[in-house]
Amino acid sequence: MARATYPASQAQTGAQAKVWSLALPRTWKYNPEGNRDLRLDFLRGFCLFVIVADHISFYPAFTLFLTGGGYFLVSAAEGFIFISGLVLGLVYGPRIMKEGMQASTSKILHRAWTLYLWNLIVAFAYLALAYFTPVQTRREMVGAPPDFSFDLILKLITLRQSFGWSDLLSTYAVLLAVSPIVLYFLTQKKTRWILGISWGLWLAYQIFPENFSPEIGTFPIFAWQVLFMNGLVIGYHREAVKEFFNKWPKWKLYLPLVLAFVGILALGITWIYAGVFDSNTDLTWFLTEAFDKMSLRPGRIGAFLIFFAVFYLALTYFWEPVNRALGWLFNPLGQNSLYIYILHGFVVSIFFNIPGYGDASSLIHTLGHILAILCLWSLVKTRFLFNVVPR
Fold this sequence. Notes:
Blueprint: H1 14-23, H2 38-56, H3 64-67, H4 76-99, H5 101-132, H6 150-157, H7 167-187, H8 191-207, H9 221-236, H10 238-246, H11 250-273, H12 281-290, H13 298-317, H14 319-335, H15 337-351, H16 362-381
């Protein structure tokens, strides 16, 4: 469990030490204890909150300021995929050294198989609700599922189609299945090969999307793998990455980062929400292409990396007050991310069946988003179906 550190002056003895301990404030900076990085748990929990709110949708809501409504320049999906790769590298780098490549590969492939199966379970559960019950499982603008057929079953089994927001599970399962190969090459000091292949596939998709877009769920796998694989590489080489950035004066890193963050934030607000550029069709087209989500364009990747770095640094320097305020909620969500993602679709569907909810006020929509995430949090705290649903 992370805790705040105390000033060195508290090591003094006697009355003087007591005076100094009362006079000097406690630091807010994150101080790691153990191998788990609670900042990543917090961020992944926050990503899940954004995903839940955006999947319920029904805006306007005051949560728009936190979630972006699902159409900002960066989304929680990028964060979820990147953090998943980052955590995998953080965990399995040391584990390979301790347990060996074979044992680690077995655990990763078992996890990938579990994700694959639950992708099918979620998809078939949603289809069953759609076919055999009056329960509304989708927003009005989302089309009804196709008629049940052998071709539909084949598409689900081969991950070419998903339902009930199981698409992220199928993408994650494929990335996990490939990751032992990546980890092996990392142990052989072939990091440049991994990065070259990863970015090469991403670039090939950007140039020839029709030839580099295998049908796996919703997300183009050759584009989205770049977040997962680069996160995996960073996690595996965490000490080298830390050493590289420690060589730089902090102001040379933080100042351009903060300026870029403010710039991206201002661009998103003026373009998407204020509509300042609506009359300039050429500029609007360029920005739409540069920040396209599904293709994971360069602007999208850059915006995500800037936002992630700022949020991570903010947690690093303001951990204690932020953790006290929201850690009770986001940390358990992030530590049980797969469990939350699997169940969130069923919780989200509740709101599609509340008469008149879509036409309610901003306050009601906001309360709905909050109640949904609190419902999922309560399932974690009560360990509901923990022996059945993977975490």
